[in-house]
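Re: Re: C-alpha cell formats

Sure, here are both.
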Amino acid sequence: MKAGEDAHTYGSVNSQILAEALAEKGFKVDKKQIELEEPIKELGIFTIQVKLNNNVKTSFNVSVIQE
C-alpha cells in the first residue's frame, strides 16, 4: 500500500482485498467469511479471523507493507 511517513496508508485493506489475496495463493474464501471489524488503514502485521463454517474458525497473519 502507498503510505505516508506516519505509516498511515492512502487507502484501506478490506475483506474484498484480503479474499482476492487469498485466492491468488490458492485459498477460496468468500469475503463474508473474513471477520474484519474495520478496514486496515496502517502498515503492520495483523491477525485476521476467518469463519470457515459454523463450528470452525481459523486465523492468518497479513502484512501490510509500503510499496
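Second one below.
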Amino acid sequence: MTRVDFYVLETPDHDRHQRMICRVVEKAWQQGHTLYLACDDEPTVRAYDDMLWQFQDTSFVPHATCFDADARVPILIGCAPGPLGEADVLVNLGSAVPDVVSRYLRVIESAGYDDDTRTRARQRYRYYQERGFPLATHKVNA
C-alpha cells in the first residue's frame, strides 16, 4: 500500500517551506527515486521549477516541467494527475489529494506554512487516515 509522509516545519513560513520541499525532493532523488511534483496550476509549476534550480548553490537536482517537450528526467513538475508509470514518488503540492495517489509507492505531503495551508493539510491527513493509508510525520527544523 502507498505510504504517506507528512513533513512538518517546527517554525513555519513560506520561504522555509519552499526550501524544505526542495531538500526533501533532492534527498528522495539521491536515494534513487523518480518523482512527480503535482501542483494546482502553471504558476506553481514554474515557481518550483525555478526553486529547484536555485535553492542551493552546490546542488544539482535534474528536473523538468510538464511543459518541456519529451522531458526524460527523474523529477517532473506538473499539474495533477501526472504521467502514468513514470514516477514512484508523488510530491503533492496541491490543495487536495489527487485521485491517483494509490499508483505511487510513496506520497510526500507538507503540513503547510500558514493557517490556510495547515487547514488543508489536516483535511488531506484525515482523507488518508480514513482510507487506511500508512501515515508518518517528520518534524523538520529548516
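Residues 3-140 form a domain with the Rossmann fold fold (CATH 3.40.50.10110). The chain has one domain: 3-140.
- S.
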